[in-house]
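Tokens for chain A. Residues wanted.
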């Protein structure tokens, strides 16, 4: 069983009524979507674009919460709230955490899907 901090498998599949096929499809989409959103967030942080940092951190929080990647959802929320307050020092300080956490999560999900796909 993997760390529920990275990907809470039980909570995710419980939410889907145990539908493994649907779960695998959602995780496949996340593997494509999350890195795209992180790239967009990174560009917004570089440009100090408050509205886009809020938009992309909120989006990353949402899709991460959906798959129960709870740590990414939490860091995304911290970044979103800091951006809303105009605290770009905090946004930049938290950004490496989200990069590292997403890297770990994507690795775990790829391994998980590799094991659980036919």
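Reply:
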């Amino acid at each position: 069983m993997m760390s529920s901090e990275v990907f809470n498998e039980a909570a995710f599949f419980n939410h889907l009524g145990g539908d493994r096929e649907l779960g695998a499809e959602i995780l496949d989409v996340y593997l494509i979507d999350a890195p795209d959103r992180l790239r967009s967030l990174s560009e917004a942080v570089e440009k100090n674009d408050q509205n886009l940092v809020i938009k992309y951190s909120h989006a990353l929080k949402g899709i991460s919460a959906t798959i129960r990647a709870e740590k990414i959802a939490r860091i995304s929320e911290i970044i979103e709230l800091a951006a809303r307050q105009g605290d770009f020092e905090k946004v930049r300080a938290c950004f490496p955490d989200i990069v590292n956490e997403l890297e770990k999560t994507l690795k775990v999900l790829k391994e998980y899907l590799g094991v659980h796909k036919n």
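Residues 9-112 form a domain with the Four Helix Bundle (Hemerythrin (Met), subunit A) fold (CATH 1.20.120.160). Residues 88-116 form the longest helix (29 residues).
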